[in-house]
Amino acid sequence: DTEVTQTPKHLVMGMTNKKSLKCEQHMGHRAMYWYKQKAKKPPELMFVYSYEKLSINESVPSRFSPECPNSSLLNLHLHALQPEDSALYLCASSQADSGGRGYTFGSGTRLTVV
Amino acid sequence: AQKVTQAQTEISVVEKEDVTLDCVYETRDTTYYLFWYKQPPSGELVFLIRRNSFDEQNEISGRYSWNFQKSTSSFNFTITASQVVDSAVYFCALTQLSGGYNKLIFGAGTRLAVHP
Lengths: 114, 116
Known about the structure:
- The complex is a heterodimer.
- Chain A starts with a strand and ends with a strand.
- By secondary structure, chain A is an all-beta fold.
- Chain A has strands at 4-7, 10-13, 18-25, 31-37, 44-50, 53-57, 64-70, 73-79, 87-94, 104-105, 109-113.
- Helices cover 0% and strands 56% of the residues of chain A.
- In chain A, the strands form 2 sheets. In chain A, strands 2, 4, 5, 6, 9, 10 and 11 form a 7-stranded mixed sheet that branches. A 4-stranded antiparallel sheet of chain A has the order 1-3-8-7, with no helix packed on it.
- The radius of gyration of chain B is 14 Å and the shape is globular.
């Protein structure tokens, strides 16, 4: 299995809603990432988990809350989002060695905040 | 600071033309890795190649080839005999090496349109 699976593929939520994005991989990768991509822009790193521990938080607002329950799963909990948070959210995983071996992205969740 | 520059914002070609996408990077690391990804309209980032800084051999995979030149800090990507299915946004990326994970630093991307 060489895939990163993200659910849901599309999500529309109101500004008062709470929702979660899910990411799963079974490649044995111990580094997992959340990226945010606005239209016509490159992906930007949000969070990194290495061996299930949060290693990087790129000054992301607290309305985004990541969670890594085990080595295969990564969640992103969303609460009180703003319309400007509408974007494609990409999950990725890689081997936790130097060099990003096996760096694989999921197909993303297109989030619309109304 | 690490940086990736893709100066070509958009390229438009006719099918069967060859096209080269440019990538120039900046890093102070002696060990680093470069990537190319393809992003079709559906949104997923498709891995194309990963190259380490010690391997300057050019690589060819079917219609795709890559030219890595450390002397000019460039890692250019050529598609030979382009096809409509090659239409996508292409990103060049550089890793910032850290223990246990790798932050990818992306260029702005080049949008390639291949017309029949």
